[in-house]
Each structure stands twice: as structure tokens, then as C-alpha cells.
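Sat 14:20. Reprocessing the chain from the morning session after the first attempt stalled halfway. Input below, unchanged.
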Amino acid sequence: MSLWIWLEHNGYPDINYKVMDLPYTLANALVTEAVSCLECIEAENSHIPNNGGLPITKGLTQKDISLKMFNKKRYTIIAGIKSVLKNICARIFADVLQIILKSRIINRVRASGGNIFDMHLTVPGFPHPLFGKFDISTNNTMNLDLSDEKIWMGNGPCDDVTDDDKSMFLTFSKGFPVSEPEVRYLFTRTYGDCVQSLSMGSAVVNDQSLFAMMILKSVRTVDQILNGKRVAKLHINGKHIWVRKYERRE
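Finished this time. C-alpha cells:
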């Protein structure tokens, strides 16, 4: 459902309404394709059929759509679905989550001596570890009209991404020092004014930084740099730079 909502806000309107009119067999096939989309995002190397792998979705939307899009825009889509999960799904299904996590709620109330209606819960891996964890309020159940733009509270999918969503980890070759100006020039030359911040690692080997952390201004630039790969190999002044998405480790 969150995937379809994200698609509706990215050029594929009214999917959820169209799904409600489908016979069971077609609806089930559409769900299977949605699962394939998520598997494509998660997989290291995804096989994409010649027909794009999404014939039912393509027919329903009457637009060109393929698993290739989910491979090329992996991190943009992850950030967008996370936004939908946080802003819509966690609120719609807050009561269901409370039932599932009932014992955790009770234990926290007992430990804090507080009121159950004032509690906030962290839901790990909801609904999948790929999208991280979410905080929900036990007093935040409400009816939402999915066609009402106000539910985004001024933000659409990908408008409320975190710095982690836009962060990249860079590594350099030992013996070939790369400077901060060189790194900035490499990315701005190709992707424009895209760097929000850049932090070079401590110079521990012959006064050379072997890594850097870079936060971009848009998660879309992450996908442009990686182009469907997990690691991108770039060059500046004859020196190699390896770039991958930064993944925070708890």
C-alpha cells in the first residue's frame, strides 16, 4: 500500500482506487508485482525481465513502468516509502500496532508510572528492516483521506528525508591523497550545487585522509551517482574515489 501511495505522488495517479475495482486474481497479481519491486530495491543484483517485470502495474496505470526504475532510483524510493510509512501508515494502523505491541506498552507504562495514552513507541523494522524504525504515539489514531493533500502537512514523499538518507561514504586509495576541494569539484562539476556538507576523515597515514563523509542536498543525487550500483568508482586528477551509500550502524 505504501508503495502505491508513493507512486500516486510520483506520476502514477489513482492506483489505490483502481485496485479496489480489480477482481481478486488481478489484485493478487498486482500485490506480487509490488513485492517484486521491493525485492528489486533490496537485492544486490536484480534480474530485470525484458518486459520490465511489471505488466499488471503497467496496464493498470497505463504508463511505462519497469523494475529498472526501482533499481536506478533505489534510495529515492526508499526515502519516499519511509515518508509514506511515517506520515500515513503508522498513523492509520496505530491501533493495530498497539495491539501487536501490547506487552511492550504495558511494560513501559509500569516502568515509567505514566499514562498509556501519553506513550510513544519505537517500532523496529516496520514493516521491513529496509525502511528502518518509526516512532508512533499511542494516542495518534485518526481517519485519513488519502486523496487529501493536507495529510502531508506541507511535505510530500522525499520532502522530509533525514541527513542519513542523503549521506554517502567515500574512500580513497592509500598513497594517492585527495583534497577536500578536489572532492567538492568532482561532484559539483557533474551534479551541480549538490553538496550540503563534506567531512574529510582524520589524516592518519602520511597526512592523508583515507575516507570522507558527504551529505548531499537531495537523495535523488545519491541515485544519480550510484546509477543502480552499490558502489561507484570515480576519478579526479588521476586518483580513484569509491563512493557508496552511508549506512548507520546501531
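The chain has a mean pLDDT of 81.
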